[in-house]
Design goal:
There is one protein chain. This protein is α+β, with helices and mostly antiparallel strands and 169 residues long. The chain is built from eight helices and six strands; from the N terminus they run H-H-E-E-H-H-H-E-E-H-E-H-E-H. The strands form three sheets. It has a two-stranded antiparallel sheet with strand order 1-2. It has a two-stranded antiparallel ribbon with strand order 3-4. The protein has a two-stranded parallel sheet with strand order 5-6. The radius of gyration is 22 Å and the shape is extended. The protein starts with a helix and ends with a helix.
Length: 169
């Protein structure tokens, strides 16, 4: 890394992006201009720009389930419609987000209690792949905003020992 930075005094600005207040610095990775150009060329060859456009158009690009990929709807905080099969999915997304917010607030405040009638102290996420890694990543990223007294645990192993040991906590 030291050699790469000494050879290119503009490395930090060459291998970083800024969008609003988000700063993405990938200069501290083993990448050079040739690697960057090859990756961009690969994106073009695999028609990534067209796939991105299809995703934003609500086209059915999830071939396994023959449906739209609607990750973008979860990140749409503006008035823009996100369509799937010609229907705007945003009203349904907003309704579910509102329910999720109310549920979280009820758990945080202690209004929603566990089966013992006591305030919920532990939340166990069970999942594999993205169903594990996504929630785990978000939980780690948002640690400064955690509610004191509530712990999150993650189980991603089919071995019964993992869930048994987690539930002991």
């Amino acid at each position: 890394m030291r050699q790469l930075f000494s050879e290119d005094t503009q490395r930090a600005s060459s291998f970083s992006l800024q969008h609003g207040d988000i700063y993405f610095d990938y200069s501290k990775n083993k990448i050079n201009t040739k690697t960057q150009q090859l990756l961009l060329s690969l994106a073009e060859q695999t028609e990534l720009p067209a796939a991105i456009k299809s995703m934003f158009n609500g086209d059915k690009i999830n071939q396994t389930e023959n449906r739209s990929v609607l990750h973008i709807a979860l990140r749409n905080f503006g008035p823009k419609a996100i369509k799937s099969d010609g229907k705007d999915v945003m009203p349904e997304v907003r309704a579910v987000q509102s329910k999720m917010k109310a549920f979280c607030e009820a758990i945080h405040s202690g209004k929603h209690v566990g089966y013992t009638g006591k305030k919920i102290k532990s939340i166990v996420n069970i999942g594999i792949g993205g169903s594990d890694l996504g929630p785990l990543m978000v939980t780690e990223a948002l640690k400064p905003y955690t509610v004191k007294g509530i712990e999150a645990y993650f189980v991603s192993n089919v071995d019964g020992t993992h869930i048994a040991e987690t539930l002991k906590k």
